[in-house]
Design brief:
CATH topology of the largest domain: Jelly Rolls
Helix content: under 10%
Shape: globular
Distance between the termini: 35 Å
Structural class: mainly beta
Number of helices: 3
CATH architecture of the largest domain: Sandwich
Number of domains: 3
CATH superfamily of the largest domain: Exo-inulinase, domain 1
Strand content: over 45%
Radius of gyration: 25 Å
Low-confidence stretches: 1-29, 334-343, 460-464
CATH class of the largest domain: Mainly Beta
Number of strands: 35
Oligomer: single chain
Largest sheet: 8 strands, antiparallel
Length: 528
């Protein structure tokens, strides 16, 4: 089953907004005098008429994923946050976490394209033309935007060795130090209480060997649902790493057997281990370098976390390992995502006509009874070969507020970032909504309001839908609620202006590479 979550506002949406917006956008080179913000740091500021924006810089490496959360702490501030690259170009942008319920801004799991220094630009909505003001708190996080756990080993939690007398554990000077006293042993330490790690999360810890043992290995245990049921990510003094699953007793499943990697050649000064989890897909990092991505479905999609260390047979000098700054982040949870659990899967999505889907949606209580199909277009297409979007109206000028719109969408492009979509509730050229799919496994939903997409949603399932060139897209708009399904799975549920408007198809090119969008069996159901 695909797992859809709100992530970054989306590079595609951000750039499309720039391409379609008639107004100017100032591009600024990086300013070396700007203050620096670091991961897990919170800074504060005030935005008003005199200071409509503030900026900070941060350093990142290619492949990193970062999140930014801006929370208003006073006034009526409606904040917007952007990430700019070294040349001042917009990388990602978000206005509202969940309009209109939450006007705080957040960027989640933004992929960093290259090594360098980036800028966070925080402003009030419309910047100098805006009319809100107030104080805010800005936090920069690795991977996701919700910090479930940040353990600095200051004594708040008393960690203990699960292996009993085989290990000694001490918490002092802001770190946890562990020593294992037996050869050929795996031991671990765990907190008495810690939040269960959800299916989509990021775990990171710093570790360093303090002595010179014959051999050492240390790592992370995660998704633990019992003393003999968990995943293990471990690195060793031999310059290799492994990903294993334990499923009861002494049975081990070697999901990735010990494998050498250049990033592990010298860990004498320590390492930062990281695991990015997305359902049954796991990506492993050491000191910011990606080791590999592995798929596994051995264990449940949630569970506990622990810190591990191990020895080998006939070892005489045992390792002493210091752990620090254990961090767990997860995607933000907003009201619309909670609602997304209602009727999350449609069983009739492969039906060749609309009637079975309409009946299923009505049975779930997601649409009213009755209505009729008012449009069926067997095949249509649109294309664009420049940066921007090409739209083609369908339905011969018919307009409606409540609707169900479905199509089978096929995309041809040599760039996975490009997209094909359906637009709906198009009142005029300056007011419409758009649902699109791209070649990365992503789905976007946005409303074009006069001069910008506002607010932006971008969700991604990097497993089931990544790389697909043909999907069934379904948009259900009833009142202020819009739900979007891909191949029968609910990918987005959000508030949407209930405008009376038309529908059509669209092709979107983020980078100017040609994209051809084919739409088969496009149908429209309404009650008007």
């Amino acid at each position: 089953m695909a797992i859809w979550r709100r992530i970054a506002a989306g590079m595609l949406l951000a750039v499309m907004a720039l391409l379609l917006w008639a107004g100017p956008l100032a591009v600024h080179a990086q300013d070396e005098a700007l203050p620096v913000i670091r991961l897990m740091e919170t800074v504060f500021g005030t935005l008003d008429d005199a200071t409509p924006e503030l900026r900070w810089q941060f350093d990142a490496r290619a492949g990193d994923r970062v999140s930014v959360v801006v929370r208003a702490t006073s006034g009526d501030l409606d904040a917007i946050v952007q990430i700019l690259d070294a040349g001042g170009r917009l990388l990602a942008e978000n206005d509202d976490i969940a309009y209109p319920e939450r006007l705080d801004a957040a960027l989640e799991a933004v992929a960093i394209p290259g090594d360098g220094r980036y800028t966070l630009r925080v402003g009030r909505y419309r910047f100098r033309q805006g009319d809100t003001a107030g104080e805010f708190a800005l936090t920069l996080l690795p991977a996701f935007a919700d910090p479930l756990l940040w353990e600095t080993f200051d004594g708040t939690r008393q960690w203990s060795a699960v292996s009993g007398d085989l290990m000694e554990v001490e918490q002092a000077d802001g770190r946890l130090t562990a020593i294992i006293r037996t050869a050929n042993t795996l031991g671990w330490v765990a907190p008495p209480e810690a939040p269960a790690i959800p299916a989509r999360a990021y775990v990171q810890v710093e570790a360093r060997v303090l002595n010179e043992p014959d051999y050492w290995e240390y790592g992370l245990i995660f998704r633990q649902d019992g003393p003999a049921s968990y995943y293990l990510f471990s690195v060793s003094s031999r310059g290799d790493w492994a990903f294993m699953a334990r499923s009861g007793g002494s049975t081990w499943l070697r999901l990735r057997d010990w494998t050498e990697h250049p990033a592990l050649a010298d860990l004498s000064t320590g390492a930062v281990l990281g695991v990015l989890m997305d359902g049954d897909t796991f990506t492993f990092y050491v000191n910011g370098e990606t080791l590999d991505t592995v798929r596994a479905d051995t264990h449940a999609t949630s569970g506990g976390v622990a810190l591990s260390m191990g020895t080998v047979d006939r070892q005489t000098v045992f390792p002493v390992v210091a752990f620090d700054n254990l961090l767990v982040t997860a995607p933000l949870t907003v009201a619309e995502e909670e609602e997304a659990s209602v009727g999350a899967n449609l069983t009739a999505w492969e039906a060749s006509d609309s009637a079975p889907l309409i009946a299923e949606l009505a049975a779930l209580g997601l649409i009213p009874e009755g209505g009729r199909q008012v449009m069926l277009v067997p095949d249509s297409f649109t294309t664009v070969s420049r940066p921007g979007m090409q739209m083609l109206p369908l339905g011969q000028g018919r307009t409606q507020t409540d609707f169900v719109l479905g199509a089978t969408v096929s995309m041809e492009s040599d760039s996975a970032e490009n997209a094909c979509g359906l637009f709906f509730r198009r009142a005029d050229e300056s007011r419409y909504s758009l649902a699109f799919v791209d070649g990365l496994g992503g789905l976007g939903v946005a409303e074009w309001q006069t001069d910008r997409f506002d607010p932006a949603f971008y969700g991604m399932d990097t497993g089931e839908f990544a790389g697909l060139t043909r999907v069934r897209l379904l948009v259900v708009g009833i009142g202020e609620r819009v739900r979007v399904y891909l191949n029968g799975q609910l990918a987005a549920a959000r508030s949407n202006p209930p405008l009376q408007g038309g529908v059509g198809i669209a092709a979107l090119s983020y980078n100017g590479r040609p994209v051809n969008c084919q739409f088969d069996n496009t149908w429209l159901w309404t009650w008007e």
